[in-house]
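Why this split exists: single-chain examples teach little about how molecules sit against one another. For that reason, every record in the complexes split bundles all components of an assembly together and asks for one structure covering all of them. Below is a record exactly as it appears in the raw files.
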Amino acid sequence: MESLEPILRSHRFFAGIDKAFSGLVIGCAKNVRFEAGQYLFKEGDDADRFYLIREGRIAIEVAVPGRGAITFLTLGEGEIVGVSWPIPPYRWMFSAKALDRVRAIAIDAKCLRQKCEDDHDLGYEMMKRFMPILIERLHATRMQMLDVYGSHD
Amino acid sequence: MVPHVVRVKKRRREAPQVYTLEIEAEADEQGLVPFRAGQFSMLTVFGVGEVPISISGDTAVSDRLIYTIRAVGPVSKALVELRPGDPLGLRGPFGRGWPMTEAEGKDVVVVAGGLGLAPLRPALYHLMAARERYGEIVLLYGTRSPDDIVFRRELERWRRRLDIDIEVTVDHALTAWHGHVGVVTTLIPRAAFDPEEAVALVCGPEVMMRFAIGALGDIGVAPAATYLSMERNMKCAVGLCGHCQFGAAFVCRDGPVFRFDRIRDLLKLKEV
């Protein structure tokens, strides 16, 4: 059986990670697969895991009354799905749906949170890897909110 | 400074409030003046007014001019109401266009936002017609929603080519859309071109261009290799009236296409 470690270490999110840290993360990881149309998680659910995407595309959606589901972000290979897992109340704010067949590594958030609590060096390493993603998505969200393509008349 | 009278030959709806007009010269008039990719014309609706509009057609086609117009003010609203056969006034072409010669031998990344694809379309026609003169060609196009995509059929046709990479993204979409969703700048780090050997052509709303230039700079595209098309209130179009003054430059005469390193300080100002 293929070990998860080389897969995890080759993912962009964990590029260059110290072996000791990746060994800790592996203990919380497993391979998962979703078919097109299947939800990885739904808005309001517990944020008990996050995903490193290996293949396929995912739509991040929010339900808008009267309009149905609105997609505001798509993610694909090399990206992370789920950023609510490290911050209380550990609940998904949005839904994530597979647009085609998705292969991913799922990381058990409770397990990793505990390991980060026990080993703050690991916790800091995880924060350093998560923060740029959060900042990039925050900037993108601000740009979407500006609605720069609108005619504003 | 006196407009030539031309006539609408075709009118096509591109997106909500966005129309493409194809115009031709009157039979008894001289032919249309050739233009370079990125230039603009002054279009007059008689009795309403005159506005600057970028040329969105092919520089290789000499018997007609194409403009893609969003109806936002009285003149542009009147322009998109014109029907085949209706007259309008034409001055130009004016301004400096995209650096098509300087880009030869290099990768070219085209970043377009919303209707900013219109002034870039002549450059894309040229890149594809002279494909062998350029390295990788990448078009990254972002707009508000799938309904707002302009030149959709052409984009689909270009996507079938194997020698150009095209990524289209929208800011938000209903679930029927299966393409990319997210701001156009997020496509830049993932695009396949050599940043150190690339020329970037950027056009869109100014906020979007500032973000795009930042993302291009982050991956190593030099400010001197980054060009953007500025939009200002052009009136005379020949650098006399001062309406479109942009620092020491006039957008109508010295632009609308500027090299980023020459205007970077002006982009940070709230009012220029």
